[in-house]
Amino acid sequence: MGRVTYSWILPIRDKAEALPKLISEIRKAMEGITVKDWEVIAINDASNDETALVLRLLAKKIPKLTIVSFPSPQGKWAA
After folding, report:
1. Distance from C-alpha of 21 to C-alpha of 38, rounded to nearest angstrom
2. % the chain with pLDDT above 90
3. What pTM does this model have?
């Protein structure tokens, strides 16, 4: 990907249902501007729902998505 000029950092906990739409909206917004080198870093804060699975599936389709997963809840500030 080269040098990244814009990063979205998303602390996430138990948001499996909202993730596909959120990531889709970020992609649309970034593809509509001149910034080409961007990334999304999704930080899964030990979700109890299907967040980890949804993130893995999205990351297979979206190379600009990186996942960081905490094994136990750390809170949004740690993310």
Report:
1. 18
2. 77
3. 0.87
